Automatic annotation (TrEMBL):
This is Olfactory receptor. The keyword Transmembrane helix applies. Belongs to the G-protein coupled receptor 1 family. The keyword Transmembrane helix applies. It holds the Pfam family 7tm_4. Keywords: Cell membrane, G-protein coupled receptor, Membrane, Olfaction, Receptor, Sensory transduction, Transducer, Transmembrane, Transmembrane helix. The chain crosses the membrane at residues 29-53, 65-84, 104-123, 143-166, 203-229, 241-264, 276-295. InterPro entries: GPCR_Rhodpsn (IPR000276), GPCR_Rhodpsn_7TM (IPR017452), Olfact_rcpt (IPR000725), Olfactory_GPCR (IPR050516). PROSITE patterns: G_PROTEIN_RECEP_F1_1, G_PROTEIN_RECEP_F1_2. Residues 44-293 form the G-protein coupled receptors family 1 profile domain. It comes from the Eukaryota. It comes from Apteryx mantelli. It is found in: Cell membrane.
């Protein structure tokens, strides 16, 4: 085979990520905004993890799942934002094929794991509100560990399978990915080989790993709301709803934006809007989740106050 012919049939060594749009005057502003979001996201989620570990009042299955979710959010944000920050800072929008596949793998891993973790948290709230007498025997620490481990393992398996199919595709010709990270559909748009197998496998796994956890969340909250409405006193209803309201908000925001992104047609007119919604669920959701839990949850707020008082007392005594 001639060298020129070989070059025309091999995949490129790097891609160009178009990002949020080629507006040089906004690069500094976008960098500062992304940096603030990243730092606050990391600090808030790490703080949640530390509170769950340090405060014995938070040593319950519900907060164990919350700690797992916050740990996942730190990884999730780093997968997307670290590369985006480097692009804003250096002006270099290229990413190697291996780097792109690595980002795609970890993004899929954390996305699927989060879907299952949210479903596990909904199930935990269902047992606590709808089966309160059986909760302690059903949601033991062993069961909590198994459910959390299953969430991470299913994410690992799913992303490994999908990435193996995507990485076998040939990416020749145009190397430009019209997105700010390496996502499934934008990657297929620049592939020049048959993508049917990758599409079929991904669609099948998406039904099991995105749709089924969503339906599980939905079923849990239908039962929870029905149980709350049967409580005779308004104080009792308010107390019961307060234990799951923060999680319900997180689930609604996460799945709302996720459904819009992956059901919205990727027409030229809607691509920028698609990026906006993608920015929301990949970058803003990990930022607002710990804020929602800390503002809505009395036990988390109390644990935070206790930690701040201890830190202040330690500072004043120069310990």
């Amino acid at each position: 085979m001639e060298k020129g012919e070989w070059d025309n049939h091999t995949s490129p060594v790097e891609f160009i990520l178009l990002g949020m749009g080629n507006v040089p005057s906004l690069q500094t502003l976008l960098f500062l905004l992304s940096l603030i979001i990243y730092l606050v996201t990391m600090a808030a989620n790490i703080l949640i993890v530390l509170l769950v570990v340090a405060d014995r009042h938070l040593h319950t299955p519900m907060y164990f799942f919350l700690g797992n979710l916050s740990s996942l959010e730190t990884c999730y944000s780093s997968t997307i934002l670290s590369r985006l920050l480097a692009s804003f800072l250096t002006g270099d929008s290229t990413i190697s094929v291996h780097g792109c596949m690595a980002q795609f793998y970890f993004f899929g891993y954390f996305l699927v794991s989060e879907c299952y973790l949210l479903a596990m948290m909904s199930y935990d709230r269902y047992l606590a509100i709808c089966q309160p007498l059986l909760y302690a025997s059903l949601m033991t620490w062993k069961v909590s560990l198994q459910l959390a481990a299953a969430s991470w393992l299913v994410g690992f398996f799913t992303s490994t399978v999908v990435t193996s199919f995507v990485s076998r595709l040939r990416f020749c010709g145009l190397k430009v990915i019209d997105h700010f990270f390496c996502d499934f559909t934008p990657l297929l748009e620049v592939a020049c080989s048959d993508t049917n197998a990758a599409r079929l496998v991904t669609f099948t796994l998406a039904v099991f790993n995105l749709v089924l956890p969503f339906l599980s969340n939905l079923a849990s909250y239908v039962c929870i709301i029905a149980a709350i409405l049967r409580i005779p006193s308004s104080v009792g209803r308010q107390k019961a709803f307060s234990t799951c309201s923060s999680h319900l908000i997180v689930v609604t925001v996460f799945y709302g934006t996720l459904i819009i992104v992956y059901l919205m047609p990727r027409t030229p007119q809607l691509r920028q809007l698609n990026k906006v919604f993608s920015f929301f669920y990949t970058i803003l959701t990990p930022l607002v989740n710990p804020l929602i839990y800390s503002l809505q949850n009395r036990e988390v707020r109390e644990a935070l106050r206790k930690a701040l008082r201890k830190a202040l007392a330690c500072t004043q005594s120069s310990c």
